[in-house]
Automatic annotation (TrEMBL):
Organism for this UniProt entry: Fibrobacter succinogenes (strain ATCC 19169 / S85)
Pfam families according to UniProt: HSDR_N_2 (PF13588)
Residue stretches making up the Type I restriction enzyme R protein N-terminal domain: 19-135
Domain of life: Bacteria
Annotated InterPro entries: HSDR_N
Protein name per UniProt: Type I restriction enzyme R protein N-terminal domain-containing protein
Length: 138
């Protein structure tokens, strides 16, 4: 028996079980179980129009940084997820760069299927540097 939907614990609803959604849900579980991000700080399919009304883009996953007193456009983490075989790293980076014109996250996570890359914003150079993994939230 195949399932046409997956339950998203953040959006609290069944969503179509697309290959990209599988990557998104594995990432959500990782954030909750390993990185220990509180569920209420995670936004899935976050509309960037909440920050910039001129865009209709949506970020796959965003972890808010409200605990640190940061505004909406300065999240703790920005995640872009893509199904394996559908995109390349340069295309994923190009999409991310569009979001970085609006958002300034502390960390970035790119998930291309089961291949993942992590980056941290360097406070001195204001550039992202590659890191091995995300720190535990808090």
């Amino acid at each position: 028996m195949t399932h046409d939907t997956l339950f998203d614990p953040i959006r609290k609803k069944e969503v179509p079980a697309t290959p990209e959604e599988h990557v998104r849900q594995v990432t959500v579980r990782y954030l909750l179980d390993v990185v220990k991000v509180p569920e209420h700080l995670i936004a899935v399919e976050f509309p960037l129009s909440s920050i910039d009304v001129k865009t209709a883009d949506r970020v796959d996953i965003m972890v808010h940084n409200f605990r640190a007193g940061a505004p909406l456009d300065k999240p703790w983490l920005l995640v872009e997820c893509k199904a394996p075989g559908e995109y390349t790293w340069p295309v994923l980076q190009q999409q991310l760069n569009k979001y970085l014109q609006i958002l300034t996250p502390n960390y970035v996570m790119l998930a291309l299927g089961d291949c993942v890359r992590y980056f941290e914003l360097d406070s001195v150079t204001h550039r992202f540097k590659k890191i091995e993994c995300l720190p535990v939230f808090g």
